[in-house]
Amino acid sequence: MRRVTKASLAVALLLLACSGCAKRRGASIVNHPNWEYQDYQRVAVLPFRCARPEAAEAARQAELHLIDQLSANGAFQVATRSDLSALMTEQDLSNLAGVADPSTAPPQGMVQVAQALIIGTITDFDLQREQRERSVPIIRLDRNGVPRVVGERRFMEYRHVARLGGNVRVVDAATGRVLVSHSLPPIEKDDAQANAPPRATPEELALDLAQELATEFCRKIAPQQVNVKLDSDCLIIASGYFEGRYEELKKVPTSLPEILLVARDLPKACDRNQFRLAISPKDGREYLVEHEFTWSPTLGHRGEIVQVPVSKLTAAGGERFVAKLFSIGNDRPILERDFSLVPPKKVD
């Protein structure tokens, strides 16, 4: 008899445990922002404001990066500076961006240029230049291979730091109504070096943060293509649901009146995204079942449920089928699950 070692037993147990785990699959979906952006094709980014004069360049860079990113995104027609200058001077645009009352009517003709105004502000701005003496232990191995502290190395550390925070509002150009608002707490970037000044100045670090700020604002304003990881059991076929659990099926008895087609436990990136559930014959091109829905985190583990009469499947004339989950806008399914129909056993 072959002897089973502890190592081989551990590997076998690990494989057995993993055999019951759901496989994960990468998928590309469109992540939709939390406002009705589809109703606003034309937008304009107004000059970014800042609470401190020394933040002016960072504000300008954040504004330019946001314009570039929104233009590249393709969801909007982004008004150029020349479009805006035809209506208002630079000073007037800056004043409009600083209006505290969002109900104040924008200038006449603005709606023809932009249906929505994007107003950004740098609220937090801090630059620091630090230097301090530091020491680190010097460690060596003794004769027995044991690490010992044999001294210390002293050096001067020079550190540059930038912190930047801000907010963005999207305002209806016709009514002044705030459509979406987002604030980003201060983010920090630093550069340090021993016995020499850092390579980047605090001002340069602040400009890098301005680009990060613009990227965050763009995510809140425009739809984004994102990659997510989906468990294979986010899509299931079941006969019923009881006490928090689905009775999953791979073989569906034709005696059942209906089955449940379920999408569940989708990751957070899927919130407010639109999906489609479908069933087609294994080798067919037609869809026997189609159902569109918007994923909400409130659906959770129970998920989005479609009740499918088994008679609809038997009428198709085949036995093998595929359940599919699509992200709207993507022609290829992001998840698939095979199942088959099983006729009742004949009684002798």
**Category by helix and strand content:** alpha+beta
**SSE succession:** HEEEHEHHHEEEHEEEEEEEEHEE
Could you give me the name of the CATH homologous superfamily of the largest domain?
ABC-type transport auxiliary lipoprotein component
Please state the average pLDDT score.
85
How many E-type strands? 17
Secondary structure tally, helices = 7
Distance between the termini: 46 Å
Proportion of residues in helical segments: 10-25%
Indicate the low-confidence ranges by residue numbers: 11-21
CATH-scheme architecture of the largest domain: 3-Layer(aba) Sandwich
Number of structural units classed as domains: 2
Instruction: State the shape.
Output: flat
Task: Kindly provide the name of the CATH class of the largest domain.
Answer: Alpha Beta
Approximately what portion of the residues adopt beta-strand conformation?
35-45%
> Biggest sheet, in brief?
6 strands, mixed
| CATH-defined fold name of the largest domain | Rossmann fold
Rg result: 30 Å
Word description of this protein:
- The protein has 348 residues and is of the alpha+beta class.
- The protein has 2 domains: 160 residues, Rossmann fold (3-Layer(aba) Sandwich); 112 residues, Macroglobulin (MG2) domain (Immunoglobulin-like, Sandwich), CATH 2.60.40.
- Helices cover 21% and strands 43% of the residues.
- The chain is built from 7 helices and 17 strands.
- The strands form 4 sheets. Strands 2, 3, 4, 5, 6 and 7 form a 6-stranded mixed sheet that branches.
- β13 and β14 form a beta hairpin.
- The protein is flat and about 85 Å long.
- It starts with 5 loop residues before the first helix and ends in a 6-residue tail after the last strand.
- About 3% of the residues have low confidence.
